[in-house]
Every structure is written in structure tokens, then in C-alpha cells.
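ok so I'm stuck.
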Amino acid sequence: MGMFAALDVSQEETAICVVLADGTMVTEAKVPTCPDAIADWLARRTQDLEKVGMETGPLAVWLWNALTARQVPIVCLDARHASGVLKMMPNKTDRHDARGLAQIVRTGWYKIAQIKSHDAYVNRAMLSAREAMVGMRVKLENEIRGLLKTFGIMFGKRVGGFKRRADEIIKGDLAVAPELLPIFEALIQARRDILARIATLDSRIRAVARQNETVRLLMTAPGVGPITAMAVVAAFDDASRFHRSSSAGAYLGLTPRRYESGEISRNGRVSKREDRFTRKCLYEAANAIFCRKLGCGQLRAWARAVAERTGPRKAKVALARKLTVTLHAMWRSNTPFRENATA
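replied:
not stuck anymore, here's the structure
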């Protein structure tokens, strides 16, 4: 009779539970969260091990790759899918979670979360780092504006951008309060340093885009630059994941939720599942197509027709979904963007 195991992973320790095919528990324990310790424990305590499951989490990618290299039949379970079963437990403990996950793995009632390639995670880390730095820059600019208002100085908008206006304030308005100069000079210097780091990451992103054939292919679509193309490639990783290109829009949370029960049947807002950053990039690309003339008149006309019925915000979301489906179809067929085909 085969055995099934499950891991409830935390930073320090991992709870393990092993059950038989009929649901009988064989053994359970806690071991250090280390691939060698987990693999050795499973090798000593189990025979004819068919499958080992663990939930998605911060350590899932590292453990999945390490345990797979050690010939452990590991699968990664979608945490949202498994949480419905685990909520039935009256007490929330690591041991009980491992028991519940083991029963899920035994019955096969789970959804596998795909572990992507190493390059996909590296590119996504680069995009996430850039997004974090852009957020820091915006926060610093807002902090500077807010502190200046305390002293009656309105930053406003001037020709030449933020840097030129900041220099004007330091040389003019803050000359009467020299004790404030070190504070604002420190904030402006921090902003300058972050801008330099963003420029470095932008150069790296452009270099990766030039070397990646798939990214260059997706950039032939209107409104899609290197950041959006890299985000899509990192999110999908493999075009063959979806049998139909229409599933790509649902994967990124750009399709409406559906609720049906008895006589009730209604559509809700878009699900906003999976990759928020990629979804945001695609929405920005759709906004550029909708608001500017980017040489894609048929897509823009289609979106404006939708806007007349439902409003511009929903039209831009629909255009983002259509763009997602188009990009996936381009990737699968290895074909550059053709406006007549999307029409």
C-alpha cells in the first residue's frame, strides 16, 4: 500500500505527516526546515512513497527545487485551494495542518501550483526591485511636498521637473530658514540615489529584453514595452501551460467572477487573482492604446465601442484582457503582432 506525506513549512521547523492510501496515519514529526533533513527523514520513515505535498509560500520555490533534486516526489499545492479544507480543523496548529494536507494529497483533491524556471524568478525579482524603488521615489517626493506645506511653501508644478523646482526652493524659500536645509537636502539626495539605481535597473532590463527572443516578440504589440513584456514572460514562463489563449486572461484575474446558486446567477467584478504587477502593466498598456494613437486603430475602436456601453474603466480592463490573450497567442504561434488578426 502506497504512502502519502505532507509538509507544513515554517521558517524554523517543518511539520511532516505520513498517511496510507486508506487514510490511516503512519507517523508524524517536526524536523528543521532544511531539504537534507526533510529528505533524510522521509527516506528513513517511509516506503513506497507516492507523493509529498506542501502549500505555496515564501519557501516553496527553494524547497521544491531542492527536494526534487533529491528525488522526492514533491508537489506544490495552491494554498487558497487547500485553505478550505484546513479551515474545517477546530484547532489551527502546524501538526493539524500537516495532517489535513496529507489527506488532501491522498485523495488528490488539490490544485497544483506550477513552479517556474529559474530565469523567470530572476527576471521577476528584477522587476519587483524596480517597482519597490519607484514606490520609494514617489514616497520621498510626497514627503518633501508635505513637509514644505507645513512651512507654507507650495511645491506645485514648474517647467523642468521635480529636481529644478526643488533647487529653486532650497536656494530661495528655504534661505530664510537655514535649519531646514539639512533635512530637505537629505531627502533630495536620497531621491537622487534612488533615481540612479532605477536607471541602472532600467539598463539591465533593456539588456535582458534585447537578448530574450520572446520578449522582443511581445514588444511588437502596441503599448508593450520591455517591462510589460518581461512581466508577461515571467508570469506565464511557458506558453504551453494554457491550451487556449483565452485562459491567459483568467489566469491574471482579468475576467469577471461568477456566482450561481439556484435561481441566482450573476457576474461580479474581475477576480484580480495571481500576478498583480503583470496585471497592472497590462492595464497601463491598455490605457496607452485607449488614450493615445499607437498605430492600432482597430483595437482602439473596439475598446471605445465597449466604453460607450459600460464606461471607460471597464473598457480598459476588457482591452487589457484582450491584449493578454493576444500576447499569449503571439507567443504560442511565434508570430509578431498583426492588427488584422486581432480584429
